[in-house]
Amino acid sequence: MDPLEALVAQIQGLSSTSSDVNRLHSILKQADDLLRSKSTRLPPLLTQLDPSIHSLGFLYILDAYMTSPITKTQAETAVPIATRFIVACSDQIRLAPEKFLSVCRRLKDQVMLLETPIRGVAPLFTALRKVQVSAEHLTPLHSEFLLLCLLSKCYKTGLSILDDDVFEVNHPRDFFLYCYYGGMICIGMKCFQKALDLLHNVVTAPMSVINAIAVEAYKKYILVSLIRNGQFSTSLPKYSSSAAQRNLKNFCQPYVELANTYGNGKIAELEAFVKTNEEKFESDSNLGLVKQAVSSMYKRNIQRLTQTYLTLSLQDIANTVQLNSPKEAEMHVLQMIQDGEIYATINQKDGMVRFLEDPEQYKTCEMIEHIDSSIQRIMALSRKLTAMDEQISCDQLYLSKAGRERQRYDFDDFDVPQKFNI
Amino acid sequence: MDGDDETSGPMIDEFYANGGADDGDKRSRRAIMSGDQLDVEAYAALYSGRTKIMRLIFIADKMNNATTQLEALRMAYDEIKKGENTQLFREVVQKIDGRLGASYGMDTAWCEAVDRRAEQKKEKLENELNAYRTNLIKESIRMGYNDFGDFYYAHGQLGEAFKSYVRTRDYCTTSKHIIHMCMSAILVSIEMGQFPHVTSYVSKAEQALDVHDSIIVAKLRCAAGLANLEAKKYKLAARKFLETGPELGSHYNDVIAPQDVATYGGLCALATFDRAELKAIIDNSNFRNFLELVPEVRELINDFYSSHYASCLEYLGNLKANLLLDIHLHDHVETLYDQIRHKALIQYTHPFVSVDLNMMANAFKTTVAGLEKELEALITDNQIQARIDSHNKILYARHADQRNATFQRVLETGREFDRDVRSMLLRSNLIKHDYNLRALRKL
User: Nearest residue on chain B to A208, judged by CA atoms?
Assistant: First the structure.
């Protein structure tokens, strides 16, 4: 009997109980090379298997099939199979997570090859949820998924996984990419605060050498913090790695200068600077963001006026903020009122703007609920922090390292490292 | 009036023009400190020694009025001729550049004579000092170094003079000696512009001070005040000048005249003190003695205190030209004036719920638009809690709503905490991961 036929038979036979599946797994591992060598004959085999029942076997065969170099037409057939499999597959895939990841990656490569990244968004999302142990775990699929979301402009879908709090990370690279792409998606959705948080994570992440992701993230971090906060301080917090503290600035010179120019508060200077450095920003494909940063300066200046004035004519606003005409000033003010960034009324009859105080009184039920939920959330976080602290202070590796690094032991600590080194 | 505070260089010329026009009027009001057209002579008479020369030269440098400039230079020339500083002499002659006729030209013979004498004296001093040192007589060595200091000081070698004076320190036996050493060091440091030295020697002298010599105390206060002024610590400077006792008289006129104490102290105090402290100045009988010497400053402080800002600012404006000619104050005039004006604005708005900008502009002798700009800057700096109704030209005081502000702050802090903890947990996990990876590699 043809070895492949036999394998299919085995798969069909050994897919019910968990002990059978374990046996099947070892058989499949041995058959892996065989499968790879006959990759062209595999598609017909797949039709004999049911992805929801024979998930493990299906996975091995599919992986072998998809690993082989592939043309556009082949991809056309492979993508639906893989999609169907990902949607239907059962828990068995957890036995071979590497295989599953590789299938997902191939799928991503192929939809990109077909230039239809949107086809990969839904399956990868399903796959991600299936691989994930809990919502706190970061899987390698997170970054792939976000990349597809970015390419297909499905920012909203991407945002849905960014709302999860991620704590467990297996591979730093996944983490860097996850935060970087996540930041870009948030920028796309104009959630600048969240974008800032994500990019901040990249920039301050521990790293022994500088990497390209961090550099790119730092550039965007500068721009987003200008847009969001109207200022940027070049000094990184002291918990960031020394590599980042020392080198990041040197790689992002034009951006740092942009931030400095922004700090001077002169629109004309800023625009001139952007003009001279347009090519650099363009080649980093950050030009759009740079332009947003420039226009945020108008907003910032108008916001400052609300602190000092009760009423101000549109003409005066235009003069102070260096806009060309009262009409333009009116548009800006209107836009800002709409976005809830300032509270004001415009009197068109005499061209006056009356700035109001923030109407929020912090008395509504919603506000109380909001505060309450924040308290709950922070309490949960604190508990987590304490647990983590306890866990680390009981960690063998940590204790032996801490013991080694301390040159002189306190008398009480004296036996700790030795006890753990035995 | 508004322009005075912001502009520096070019405005000064205009001031001279003004001064020329109503000279008589001004002269009556300004006794000694007002000296553009007038009394370089009266001004110079307040000082003695090297500072007199330096102040004259400084005035000549700053002046663009040729007559006064030459007047100052002529007096400096005469003064130098009395001393032995040939270096300075050459400089002044170069500055005069023959404009004062033959009698104020280069006197080479005099220079050479002085230099020769100096050579001889130096040799003599050296021999004496060597003799003292071989004999190890402490007191004589101290005297020797001291003489050297005096010698160098007279010849304008300030660095050497300072070193010599400081060297006497090891041979000081009584506190009187130490104070003498400190006073000399302070004098030279002030001339050199090394104000950090001044501070340290003032504190050394204060430690050594056991007998209450009120003149020395007053001198030390002045020196400390000057040092603080130069270090831009105006409040401390004001305190020191205010503590200066009236015993100072003209004893310290090789550094500072009592008029200066009043001016420096008064301006620094106006710029930095609050109302209660200002009241204390007005009631301070010690300092009143000084203020009597410069009635403008006294009026100025009284006006400020009784909220007659217009007349106060007018006095300031009149004084400005002369203050810019002061060797110590000129750098600080702009800053002090700005601070005084800001304080006046803040004080003016403080008691009101709403202020009519037109009336306020009147009180400060400025335009409404200019006033609006100034107020805007102060509000942005959070120095005035108010908002401007630019339509009706009224300033409304703003009462911060504590409750809302607290809510805002709480929510913001919560958010920050949330974010920080999350990224902290993440980082620690990353570090843990990295560490595990290395541990695995080792295995």
Answer: B434
Tokens read off for A73: 């037409």
CATH of the domain at B375: 1.10.10.10
Strands A352-355 and A168-169: unpaired
User: Residue length, chain B?
Assistant: 443
Q: What is the pLDDT of residue A415?
A: 52
Average pLDDT over residues A116-144: 86
> Please, what CATH class does the domain formed by A309-360 belong to?
mainly alpha
Mention every residue, 6+ apart, whose C-beta is less than 8 A from residue B184. Answer: B146, B149, B153, B165
Encode pLDDT of B38-64 as tens digits. 577 788 888 888 888 888 888 888 877
Higher pLDDT, B41 or A410: B41
> Which amino acid would we find at residue B204?
K
Indicate whether B400 belongs to any domain. Answer: yes
CB contact under 8 A, B418 and A171: no
The answer to pTM > 0.80 is no
Q: Which residue of B has its CA nearest to A360?
A: B404
Number of structural domains chain B divides into: 1
Residue pair A224/A187 in contact by the 8 Å Cβ criterion: yes
Calculate helix-pair angle for A118-131, A72-88, nearest 10 degrees: 40
Task: Check pLDDT > 90 for residue A20.
Answer: no
**What are the chain B neighbours of A304 within 8 Å (beta carbons)?**
380
Q: What is the pLDDT of residue B442?
A: 57
Least Cα distance to A195 among B408, B419, B417, B428 occurs for B419
Of A67, A54, A64, give the one whose Cα is nearest residue A9. A54
Listed in order, strand segments (DSSP E) in B224-303 are none
ipTM: 0.78
Domain holding B419, by residue range, is: 352-425
Spatial distance between the Cα atoms of A190 and A220, rounded to a whole number of angstroms:
13
Residue B6 lies in a domain: no
Contact A309 B388 (CB under 8 A): yes
Q: Give domain status of residue B389, yes or no.
A: yes
**Nearest CB partner across the interface for B380, out of A175, A307, A401:** A307
N- to C-terminal Cα separation, chain B? 81
Residue of chain B with shortest Cα separation from A356: B387
Tens digit of each residue's pLDDT (9 = 90 or more) over A383-392: 988 998 898 8
Residues of B with CB under 8 A from a CB of A: 375-376, 379-380, 387-392, 396, 401, 403-404, 407, 410-411, 414-415, 417-419, 421-436, 439
Is residue B7 pLDDT above 50, yes or no?
A: no
pLDDT at A217 over 90: yes
Q: Which of residues 336-375 of A touch B (CB under 8 A)?
A: 350, 352, 355, 357-358, 360-362, 367, 371, 374-375
The pLDDT confidence band at residue B17, using thresholds 50, 70 and 90, is: very low
Answer yes or no: is B375 within a domain. Answer: yes
Band the pLDDT of A179: cuts 50, 70, 90: very high
The answer to whether residue A257 neighbours chain B at the CB level (below 8 Å) is no
Stretch B362-381: mean pLDDT, rounded? 86
In the predicted model, is pLDDT for residue B11 greater than 70? no
Residue-level pLDDT at B28: 36
From the list A35, A44, A40, A43, the residue with the least C-alpha distance to A96 is A35
CA distances from A407 to A399, A401, A402, A404 (A): 14, 11, 10, 7
